[in-house]
Structure formats: structure tokens, C-alpha cells
Amino acid sequence: xxxxxxxxxxxxxxxxxxxxxxxxxxxxxxxxxxxxxxxxxxxxxxxxxxxxxxxxxxxxxxxxxxxxxxxxxxxxxxxxxxxxxxxxxxxxxxxxxxxxxxxxxxxxxxxxxxxxxxxxxxxxxxxxxxxxxxxxxxxxxxxxxxxxxxxxxxxxxxxxxxxxxxxxxxxxxxxxxxxxxxxxxxxxxxxxxxxxx
Length: 197
Ligand SMILES: [Cu+2]
Prior knowledge:
This protein is of the alpha+beta class and 197 residues long. It has two domains: 1-29; 34-187, Cupredoxins -  blue copper proteins (Immunoglobulin-like, Sandwich), CATH 2.60.40.420. The protein is built from one helix and ten strands. The protein has one helix at 2-29; strands at 31-33, 38-41, 46-52, 72-77, 81-88, 98-101, 133-140, 151-155, 167-173, 180-183. It binds copper (II) ion (CU). The site of copper (II) ion has 7 residues, from loops.
């Protein structure tokens, strides 16, 4: 009887420890979300992300869909077709989107075509941006030969915007069969408005 009890408490402790480490990991990488702005067409290996610039007042409006500072990470299987449906409803502030390599150290202040890391993965003249505009940015998710990790950023190239946090994570991964988005709340300031889910 005593042995049974001992075994049981050992088992409970192990389980507790395991659950704790799972939740710690969960907290670190964020929560998997399936928002309205991601549409997956598995049979055609196509994923569409609609990214609306300055969606709300979060981060002084330097955001896409209310996300900024990489608080949303778009994760796409290697070889899939991607359509970043870029929308800027604003008539006063220019915006753009460019997929650039994730940086070490300081965030770039701007991004022109020379920083684009995946072929065709940018809106027209990303360092200039555009007003009241939309563009379908279509490309194939691909890791570069010189850069196998596949960690990129969907970045507003207009000077000061991406540098102020107007960027999302963008990752290309082998060995997954569907795209997903990770939402990392801890990258956002306290009291942020609800992003588009
Ligand atoms: Cu911008």
C-alpha cells in the first residue's frame, strides 16, 4: 500500500514537472492562432495572408493587423506558394511590405529591394511605399542556399516604420504540412488593443 502511494506521488510529481516545462515552452514561443486573415488552400499548396497596414492604433499605428515587433510569426512549409495580400487603406502614411532576412542586432531602419531575401517577395518600391493601395505579393516560400534557418521578417520598408516595430516574423520550415501563425503576446506592450484574429 505504502509503495503504491509512493509510486503514485512520484508519478504525480513527474507529471507536474512535465506539464510545467510544456507550459514554459508554450509561453516562450506564443500561442498558435488561426486568424481570419490566413486562408489555406492545401490542395494547391497556397496560403494567403491579408496584411492591413496601420490596422489600429497599436504601436503608434506602425503595425499590420494590429501586430508588431514580430508578435505574429507566419510559418510556411518550404515550397508552398504565398500570397501576401498587402493593403494600405491610409491616405496619409505610406506603407509597404518586404520579406527580408531576420537581422542580428539592430533592426534595419528601412528596406529597399536590395534587402529582399526571397525572390519577388516585396511590394512595389518598398522603401517608398504607397498610399491608399493594395497589391498581391506572390512568391514561393524558399530557404536561401546561404541561409538554411529560414527565419525572415515581413517588414515595412518605409524609413522608420520597420525600425519602429512595423514587422512580423516570417519563417519557412521543412517537415510541416500546413502553414500556421504563432502569436507572441509578450512581444507587445501592456494595454495593447486586440489585434485582428
Ligand atoms: Cu509602414
